[in-house]
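Sequence in, structure out.
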Amino acid sequence: MVDRPDTCILQHKVFSLFADPLFRRAETDDAPVMVVQMGEREVAMPLRSLAREFSLDEQSPDGQMLALIAEALDFVGALRPGDRLPSEILTGAASWEPSPEHVRIAAARLQLQLLEWLRAGRHTGEAPLALTAEELARGEVSAAARQAIQDALALAAQALGLPDSDAVLHKVEDLASELAFIEALRDRLLRRVEAMVLKLERLALVRLGDATQAETLNRVRQFAHVALKQFRQRFEEQDAQIGEVMSALRHIEGHRDFIRGNRDWLYRTQRAWDPILATWDTAEPVPDEAMRVLLSRTYHFLAPRYMPTTEWVSTLRPEKQPSVRGMVW
C-alpha cells in the first residue's frame, strides 16, 4: 500500500456507534477482533466478519485499515482508534528495544566471525581461539585474542576498501544494532523453550499414575520438540548468513531485510508463546495437580500449531467422512 496512514483511523459510521472500541486478538483462536461493550456484556466481533457484514472492500480505506490493524496486532497487544500503528508496519524498525548486553553480544559475534575469516585466510591450520561471544562482550579477552581482533579489523579494512579499523567497527556496530534483536529473542524464546523441553524430559522420567496425563505428556513432548527444531533452524539460518561476515559488512542494507524478517517472525512467535513460557519458567517438573493443569494448557496451545496436518484433521473429522484438506497453521 502506498502512503500508509500512521494512526488507526476508521471512517465507516459503524465504528462510531460504539464507545471506545478496542482491537485485539481473541483469546480462543487468536483472530483479530473488535471488542465493544454492549450493556454489561463485552462482545468481540472478528474483523473479517465486520468487513463482510458492512461490505468494506479490501481496497477501500477502511478495508485497508482493518488489514493494517490485523498486522499491527502481531506487534502490540491492543489498538484503539487514534492510536499510532507500530513502527514494524510503518518503517520496518522495531517497536521494542534489545538490552545493551544483547547489542554487545551481537557485536562480539561479528568480531568472532572476522577472527574466523582471518584464520581461514591465512591457511595455517591453526585452531580457533577458545573465546565465546559472551566472554568477548564482557571484555574477558586475552592479550593474544585482542591482538588477533585488531589484526582482523585492519585486514578487513583493506578488503572492504575502508580507511582504517575504526571504519570497520562502525560497520560492525551498524549491523550489530540489527542483530541485537535476534540475540534478545534467542534468550526470550529459544532458550526458554529449550528449558521447557528439558523439564518435560525430566518429567518423563517420573512414573505417572494417571494414563491420561502420561499420554498428554507424551504428546506435549512431541509437539515441543517439533517447535524447538523449527526455532533452532531459524536461528541457525540467521547465524549462517552472518557467517559470511565480509559479505554482510559489504552489503548491510541487503542483509538488513533478512534480519528484520526473522526478527519479526520470532517476535510474533515469542509474543504468542510468552503466556505459556511464563508459567514453565517457574514450574517444577513434578507430577502434581499444577503440572496436570499446565500440561493440559500446553497441549491445547501446541496441538493446533504443531500437530501433523493429517493427524489434526482426523481428530476433527468423524470416521467414514469424505477426505478434507488439512488445516494450515
